[in-house]
UniProtKB/TrEMBL annotation:
Catalysed transformations (reactions): orotidine 5'-phosphate + H(+) = UMP + CO2
Protein's name according to its UniProt entry: Orotidine 5'-phosphate decarboxylase
Active-site residue numbers: K109
Originating gene: pyrF
HAMAP family, per database record: OMPdecase_type2
Organism taxonomic ancestry: Bacteria, Bacillati, Actinomycetota, Actinomycetes, Kitasatosporales
Organism listed in the record: Streptomyces camponoticapitis
Pathway of action: Pyrimidine metabolism; UMP biosynthesis via de novo pathway; UMP from orotate: step 2/2
Ranges for domain Orotidine 5'-phosphate decarboxylase: 30-275
Domain of life where this protein originates: Bacteria
EC number: 4.1.1.23
Keywords for the protein's UniProt record, in alphabetical order: Decarboxylase, Lyase, Pyrimidine biosynthesis
Length: 294
C-alpha cells in the first residue's frame, strides 16, 4: 500500500500593504511621485504625443526613481487615452517599478457598485491581473459600502486602498464638506469608515485617505490609523512645509504626492533623481520638525 501524497503547504498570508508602506516610508522616505504623461510634459521632454513618446517617458521615470522612492503613482487616464497599446505600457511600468522595489499606487479613482466594483477590484487588486498594484485610489461617493468588493480583494492580496476624502480640487468641497443629517461632514463620515477598517492594525492600516495638501487646515479628524495621500505639492501650490498645518499629529503617516514638480526636471535621469531627492529632503525636514516640536 502506497503512502498517500501529503497535502500541499498552504500559501503564506501576504504581508499587508500598510506594513509594507510603513517600512518603505521609514527606509526610503515618504515621497510619492506621480507618473503623469500629460501631452504638455511629453512635448516639454521633446517627445511625441503618441505611444512611442509615452513609452520613452514612462521608462525614463521608472529607471530614474523606482529603486529609490517609496511610491510611484501612475495616473491611469494618461495611459488609457492611447487605448490598448497605452495600457500595455502601463502594465510594463507597474511590473518594472515593483521589481525595482517601489510600491505602485494606481491612480484610477474607481468607484461603482456590485459586480462592477468587483471587476475593478479584480483589475488592480488580484495578483493574477497584469495591472496588479500595491494599492489603488477609489471613490466612496456611491456610499462607503460600495467599496466592499475592493476592501475584501485588498485584504486577500495584501494590497491597499486610498479612498477620496478631502481632495485638492476646489470643486470637491461641494460634496465632501456637505453636512450629513448627523451633523458631520460627508468627508468625516468617510474618514470614520476608514478608521473602522483599520482598527487595532499595526504598524499602519492598509486603508488610506486622500487629503489635499492645499487645504490649509483639514478641519476633520484624520486619525484613521492609515496612510494619508497628500496630492497638491509642487505645481498645485502646496509645499512640504504646509504638511504639519494640514495634517497635525497625523503628519507622520502622510505620503506627500508630487508629479509635475519632479517630472518637469526630465528627461535627464539624474535631474529627475535630484528633483525627487530635493522634495524628499524638504518633506523629511518638515515632518521631523513637526514631531520634534511636540
Amino acid at each position: 500500500m502506497t503512502a498517500s501524497a501529503s497535502a500541499p503547504e498552504p500559501e503564506p498570508e501576504p504581508e499587508p500593504f500598510g506594513a509594507r508602506l510603513r517600512r518603505a516610508m521609514d527606509t526610503r522616505g515618504p515621497l510619492c511621485v506621480g507618473i503623469d504623461p500629460h501631452s504638455s510634459l511629453l512635448h516639454a521632454w521633446g517627445l511625441s504625443d503618441d505611444v512611442a513618446g509615452l513609452t520613452s517617458f514612462t521608462r525614463t521615470v521608472v529607471e530614474a526613481l523606482a529603486d529609490r522612492v517609496a511610491v510611484l503613482k501612475p495616473q491611469s487616464a494618461f495611459f488609457e487615452r492611447f487605448g490598448s497599446r497605452g495600457v500595455a505600457v502601463l502594465e510594463q511600468a507597474v511590473a518594472e517599478a515593483r521589481a525595482a522595489g517601489a510600491l505602485v499606487l494606481m491612480d484610477a479613482k474607481r468607484g461603482d457598485i456590485g459586480s462592477t466594483m468587483a471587476a475593478y477590484a479584480a483589475t488592480y487588486l488580484d495578483k493574477d491581473s497584469p495591472l496588479f498594484s500595491d494599492a489603488v485610489t477609489v471613490s466612496p461617493y456611491l456610499g462607503f459600502g460600495s467599496l466592499r468588493p475592493a476592501l475584501d480583494a485588498a485584504r486577500i492580496s495584501g494590497s491597499g486602498l486610498f479612498v477620496l476624502a478631502l481632495t485638492s480640487n476646489p470643486e470637491g468641497a461641494e460634496v465632501q464638506r456637505a453636512t450629513t443629517a448627523g451633523g458631520s461632514s460627508v468627508a468625516q463620515v468617510m474618514l470614520d469608515h476608514m478608521a473602522a477598517e483599520n482598527a487595532e492594525v499595526t504598524p499602519l492600516g492598509s486603508v488610506g485617505a486622500v487629503v489635499g495638501a492645499t487645504l490649509g487646515e483639514a478641519g476633520v479628524n484624520l486619525a484613521v490609523n492609515g496612510p494619508l495621500l497628500a496630492p497638491g505639492i509642487g505645481a498645485q501650490g502646496a509645499t512640504p512645509a504646509d504638511l504639519p498645518g494640514v495634517f497635525g499629529s497625523a503628519v507622520r503617516n502622510v505620503v506627500p504626492s508630487v508629479s509635475r514638480g519632479v517630472l518637469r526636471a526630465g528627461p535627464d535621469v539624474y535631474a529627475l533623481r535630484a528633483a525627487a531627492e530635493r522634495f524628499g529632503d524638504e518633506v523629511r525636514t518638515a515632518v521631523e520638525g513637526a514631531e520634534g516640536a511636540r
